Amino acid sequence: MSAKLSAVLALGLAACAPMVPLETISNAQDGTTLASKCEGREGWSDSAPPAHIFANVYMVGTCGIVSLLVTSAKGHILIDGATAEAAPLIADNIRKLGFKPADVKYLVNSHEHLDHVAGLSALKGITGARMLARAEARKSLETGISDPTDPQLEILPPFAGIKVDQIVRDGETITLGPIRMTAIATPGHAPGGTSWTWKSCKGAICHQFVFADSLGAVSADAYRFMDHPAYVAVLRATMNRVSKLKPCDILIAPHPAQSRFFERLSGNEPLVNPAGCKNYAKAAMERLDARLAKEAAQ
Q1: CA distance 142 to 76
Q2: What residue ranges of the chain have pLDDT lower than 50?
Q3: Which pLDDT does position 31 carry in this prediction?
Q4: CA-CA distance, 215 to 280, in Å (whole number)?
Q5: N or C: which end of the chain has fewer CB within 10 A?
Q6: What is the per-residue burial (b if ≥16 Cβ within 10 Å, else e) of 213-225?
């Protein structure tokens, strides 16, 4: 984790109606049902049922995009908003769980590409939540246009921008009731890439979650990573950083397939794997090396 001292964001919350007690929530589907509903469906906007992951953490996204709801009696945090078309599906999944969208207090994101953030503008309108992001992602989030240095700039359509209400620095911790969620700067897949980590407990059993941003070296066809050594260095540094995140009990990535999320959530593979971050980063590094070797051979 970052060597920087974590700082608690002192953000005032508006008065709101009493929230649904967490112990009354019982409408989440199990992981097997989610995996079954999404079999053969990986579209970014393909509807999926909500599913309980562990303790106060729920999957409320689509078959192709992970969106996580981290809940508390003081309010909830939503990570990523998928596409604009998916925004009402995410809000409906929150309602299906028995929670109120209005009780979502903070929106945060992984990276500033439309498949993960285009739905945030609508979700902000639905929830009234505050948008928190790193400074490096702010301009793209607000304009809906990728940063000029983004390898995918030429292939990413614009999206509806969302006003960023609060800048979060690397190593800062968002506090909401018992939730302590720390931002980790992980640029590379996109300049403003951010990962998030927090501890969730069910009784005496606690697990450290890591929502690790995408690490793939993805680009427009004409882009050659070997021509951008500084960008490659940043991406490698991020991979190294993710590989050393500890504890990393439950790893989840922005696309389900990246962390074999559905297989793990349905019980076909272990949900808890302390080596998850290390393995995730190692695989990404191998793909980057293969991409560079392919470019050099052309």
Answers
A1: 23
A2: 1-28
A3: 86
A4: 9
A5: C
A6: bbbbbbbeeebeb
